[in-house]
Every structure is written in C-alpha cells, then in structure tokens.
What does this fold into?
Amino acid sequence: MLEIENLHVRYGAIHALRGVSLEVRSGEIAALIGANGAGKSTLLKAVSGLIRPSEGRMRFAGTQELGRLASCELVRQGISMVPEGRAIFSNLTVIENLEVGAYLRRDSEVKKDREWIWELFPRLRDRQRQSAATLSGGEQQMLAIGRALMSRPRLLLLDEPSLGLAPLMVQTIFRTIRQINGKGASILLVEQNAHMALQVAHRGYVLQTGEMVLSGTGPELMETEQVKRFYLGEA
Amino acid sequence: MESFLQQILQGLKLGGIYALIALGYTMVYGVLRLINFAHGDVFMLGAMLSIYFARWTGFGNQPSWLGLGATLLFAMAVCGAIGGVIERVAYRPLRNAPRLSLLIAAIGVSLLIENVGQLRQVFGPTPQPFPALIQTKTVAQWGSLTVSNVEILVLLVALGLMAGLHVFVHHTRFGLAMRAVAHDHQTAGLMGIPAGKVIFGTFVLGSALAGAAGVLWGLSYPVINPMTGFVPGIKAFVAAVLGGVGSIPGALLGGFLIGEAESLTAFYLSSTYKDAIAFVILILVLLARPTGLLGRKEVEKV
Amino acid sequence: MKVFWQNNMALLVVLLVVAAAGFGFQRHLDPYYYKILVDVGIAIILVVSLNLINGITGQFSLGHAGFMAVGAYASAALSVLAAGPWLNGLALGGAQKMVVEFVALGVIVIVGGVAAALAGFVVGMPALRLRGDYLAIATLGFGEIIRIVFQNTEQLGGARGISIPPPRSDFTGVYVCAVLCVAFIWRLVHSVKGKSFFAIREDEFAAATVGIDTTKYKVIAFVLGSFFAGVAGALFAHSATGYITPAQFDAVKSIELVVMVVLGGLGSISGSIIAAAALTLLPEILRGFAEYRLVVYSLLLVLVMLTRPQGLMGMKEIKLPWHRQPYQHKPVA
It folds into this structure.
C-alpha cells in the first residue's frame, strides 16, 4: 500500500532522516517506534506532503508518487491523517468536525459512515452538537480518528494516538485501531508507546536518530534484546 | 429625548455600515491573521466606482429601486474582484513570510490605492458627489424625530447582508471550510481543504461586503474622495477588535457600538472628538480585554 | 579620561565638522537647499529612532508622528510662553546672540524630547503588552488621539496651528542632534546589553527564557525612540517656517516614517539614514512629478516586501573605518 525507499529529509543543516525505507502492506498495521527526536513525525510529515524530502521515493498504492503532492491532494488519493496532538477544530461542533473530514466527499453514504463513527465511539454521538472544545482529551482523540475515517481512507496515518491519554483510554483507542483495520484500512502507526503499538502491529520498525535500525513482525521485534531494553523498559 | 433618539438612529445607520466593513476585517483576520489595511480602501473604491457606474448607466439621474439594486450588485462584484486580485498579487506570495512583512505589504497596498486614486487621471483629489440613487423621503415622524427611508434602507441592507453571511458561513461547505482554515491551516489541508482557495474566497467575500458598505456610505454621506476609506476603515477595524477579531457576531456588535459611541460623542461632546472616541475605545479594549467582547481566547502558537 | 577621549574623539570631530559646515552653509548655500538639508536631518532623527522600536527591537509602532507632535507642541509652548519673550527682552546681537540662541535651542529641544519620552512611557507601559499587529493599531490609535487632543487645545492654536518665535533650528542645531541621536542609538544597540534588543526582535519568548527582562527593554526602546521623536518634533517646530498645525502629525506621517524604516532595512541604522535622506530628497528631485511621489512610495513599499522583505539594507550596516569590532548580529537561519 505504501512503500518508502531511501528517504532523506533535511532541515537546513540538520539531516533528520537518513535513508529510511519502510513498507505498509495492504490490510496491515505497521508500527513505527522510536524515541523523541528520532524522526518519526518527520517521516509522517514527509508522507503527508507537509515537508519536502530531499531524496528518496514514496509510492502509494503501487503507482502514485508522493512527495510532490500538496497535502490537500492526499485525501483524494485515499490517505488520511490523525495529526499529533489531535488538532481537532475546537471552534466547530463535533458533527462539524466530521463534516470537515468528509469535505471532499459528495456521495450519499456520508451519513452511513457517520453512523459507523457513532458506533465506534458512542460517546461522540451523545455530544455531537457540542463544541469540540468541550471534549476530554480521550474524546478529542476519538474525534480526530473519526474525522480521519470520514474520508474513507485506504491508508490511515496515526501520529502518537496514545500521547497524553489515561491508560484505560489508550486501550480503548488501540482496540478501535484494530477494529478499523478489521474493516480493511491499512494503518501506519507512529508511537512512543512501543508496548501497545507492537502488540497490535503486523509489522514494526524502529527508528533511531534518523535511521531505521530494526524491522520485523510485531512479535519478532518484541523479542529482540534492543527493543526490550530500550523501548519496553525490561531489564 | 427626541434628539437623543435621533442620535441613536444616526448611530444605528453608521454602525450598520461599520459592521459590514468590520466583517471583512474579521473574516480575513480569521483565515490569515492579517489586518488587511487595504480593506478600508476597497470600501472607498466601492463608493467611488459606484459614482462612475451610476453616471455611465444613467441610474444617477433617475432615482429608482432598480438603479439602487444594480449599483449595489455592481459594487459588490467589482470590489470582490479587486479584493481577490489584491490577495493574489500582494499577499499570496508572502504566505510563508513573517507576519510583519504581510502587514507592511497591506499598508503599501492601502497607500497605493489612495495615492493612485488621487491622481488627476484617475479620480482626482477633489471630492465627488454621490448620486441620489433613491429619493430621500421622511417615512415616519414623532415630534422632532424623523426617520428617513435612507436610514431604514441602509439598516435593512446591512442587516440582510449580515444575515446572509451568517447562513453562508454556518450552512455551506465553503463556510465550513472557512471556519476550519481559520482554526488551523495545516490540519484543514490534511482534511483535503485547499487553504489557498479558501483564503482567496474569503477576500472576495469580505471585499464584496465592503463594496456594498461603500454604496450605503455614499447614500448617507454623499461626498466621496480617494481618502474616504481611511478613517471609516480604521474605525471598522476598531469595531472588529471591540467585538473580538475573528468573531462574526462580534463584528456586528462592535460596529453598532462604535456607531452609537461616535454619534453620541458628536452630539453631546464635540464633533471634533468623534474621531477620537473610536480610538479611545480601541485602547481600552486592547488593554482590558484584548480578545474583545465576543472573541475566544487564542493561545499564541510559538 | 584618556579612555573617554579615545572613545569619543571621532564623535567630537564629526560634531566640529558639522558646526563648521553649518556656519559655512548658512552664509553660502542657497536657502532652498539649506532648508532641504535641514529637513533631511530631522528625517534622519525620526527614522533612526523609529528603527530602534520597529526594526531593532522588532515592535511595530505606527504612532511615531504622535510623539513627534508631543515634542513639537511642548517646545512650542515653552518658546511661546517663556523662551521667546525672554530672548526678545535680552536684545542681544552678533556672536553673543548666536551662542545664546544655540543654548536656548538646546534647552527647548531637550524639553521637547523629555515631554515625548514621558508620553512614550505612559503609552508604552500598557501598549507594549500587545504584540505585532495589535501594537501597530494601538499605537496608531494613540497617535491619532494625541493629534486630536492638540486639535482641540485652543491655547495651542487648535486646528489652525500655532506660530513659534525664534530661536530657529539651523543646520548646526539639527545635525548636532542627528549625530548625537545616531551615535547614541548605535552605541546602545552595539553594547553588551544591547544584544537584548535584537534577541527580543528574533524571539521574544526565547529572550525571556534566557533571563532578558523583555518588558524593560521594550519600554526602554519605546521611551528612547519617543524621546528622539520629540527632539525631532521640537526641531521641526522651530525650523524656518516657524508654524505647526496638528494635521502635520497625522497617521499618514507615521506611515511615511514606517515606509522609510522598512525601505532602509528593519534593524539597519545606516539603512535608515540612507532611506531618510533619499526619500526626503526624492520629492524635491521629482518636483515636476509631485503628485506621483506618494504613488512611487507606496509602490516601492509593496515591491520591496515582495522581492526583498528585509529592506534594501537588511540588517547590514555600512561601517565607518574607525569602528572597532562592533557587535555583529547574525540573524538566525
């Protein structure tokens, strides 16, 4: 679904990504883990067209070249993003946030998809007419995910969905990620919470100071010494 | 008492016009965080070009509803186009520049319109009379309090356009996009909203309202010169700040409050202080409640 | 003492040259060119002092003409009420008269500057809490309020204006002030503490986190800028015309000064001097095209923003040969 080859990103003199390669296969959840400043968000920004890579290829769905595409063209291609820190529109109501997510769609099934979001997150249904600013952190994350799903993405990019959430809420969010994947969407999950991420992921990647140091299936990675020590906190 | 009510009525008329101009400031500030200094001058162009339009079509010689309607539509269309051109030519290339550069460019555009307008080959520096597009009539009288049809008309058109804008912003796809872009360009872009087009559309919309305000101004104060836009422009901006920049109902409230304050100051204090009152209010608001009466608190992004 | 002479030798030489030139110009220069030179000097004071606020400290004031008005009217009041009649009563002549008038002008100018500085303090303390465009519009408002107040003060001539008795601000007086103003601001911003001004300009939050009292420095910049605006106002009021009206200090004047700062380069003192001189001379050179002057101004402003937003000089300075290793400010990439 998404193939990244030898991606380089530079911010002025800083070489933030140094030849990173990664693959998200159709129907899979791929997790990208790494510490603060490893380049995880940079990679997502490159994929979503917010920054231009200096080198490398990004291909979507076999043919579409990314990297030159403006970020507002991405949704049209079937890629949808849940940005870091949720970035919901707090000046809009809950339901309007979902409408923004479905901005490019003019088909008749928008309502049906909205029902599906209400089913995924019943708490949002109860608050649909409220200002999104009144939601709790967890509810805002639900809304951000719901909003991204409204465009019916083939690939969903999630940037640190567990950040700043209570443990119970983190579990709910990850359960939902599985559910969404069950419906057929491929997912690229960027996380610091390696434990949760590798549990749901089919495939995992470990990024360290701009370089990909490990990759493998989720369970494989969880068994490696390095991951255990540095990311899972086991002695 | 009647003279007090007369002043209130004056203030309502003036405030309606200020509110219409303020809407443009507020909408543009919402999506671009820019005080569009040239907005007052677009308003002036609305009034000025309407004079030429009315002359050319002959509507100026024969008061008629048709003439008024046509002039209003003309002013809105031509100002909308001018606003769009300004955005494309002067502001779009500065999208990623520091905000201060954008502000200075806006000041430059404002000066350019005023000074080109003052050239003899364009409008010239001398004031031009605004044609009587409708015959002024007294429609109601209580004692010494008189209500003219122009006052009613100005208020109705202003309120009508504001109601239209409200519906547009809250019940159309473009309105939703505008509100999303106003909150966060980047995320709106990730949702597939072309922020550039939305900003362009916002300029066109705000400028069209300024064009309509220009015609209403011309009907009320029928002498127009190229500098006409400067002071009302700043006062309308004050109205936008007073109501809360970025807030559409705020612009409405702020416009009427400034209109009333000015009208009452001119009557009870001195007409020379009427231009100062808006600034006094501005400074009090900025110091006491910078978010304005209806504005939402905004956390400055670092 | 020796250090003092070493540091100020150049300055004293420049001041002596200015005085000598003033003496010569007064006798041999055509009054028309003389007046233009005086105008250029006043413009230099105004633009360099505004650059301290807008360029070097990165605040954005649109009310400089208001502080100029405070200085002009304060000095006018002093001259009309006290200095003028007193000088008249002395009935001096010749060199004695020249010296006394020069000293009187100095006192008047300082009074104008102090009055404007006080106004700047009163306005700046609250207004500098605002950022960017809000500060711009607030200072524009203050400037207009100041102007409208003078317009309504009948004791100072109201809207009709007021005529001012001698002393007259001649070439020497104006350029001594200009040289002192430039030297003072140059030294201030190139001193160790002066780096704080640039730091605030680059990033106010970051400046605060490294312990710079940002409010203090912003107020210092604003008060000093206002002081020199007041000095320029006093010089302007006492120039050959000897007549001022409130309309001369309107928002358009403030905006014109901002244009000069921007064109010269936000942060460049030498750029400000060049811009002030060039844009004061330009309309005189383009006499026949007087009505196009402001069109050219505004077009320049837009074009410079689109093509070279840092202004013609950017942050760069033209340095005189005797400047010893001044502080080099490098903008962050």
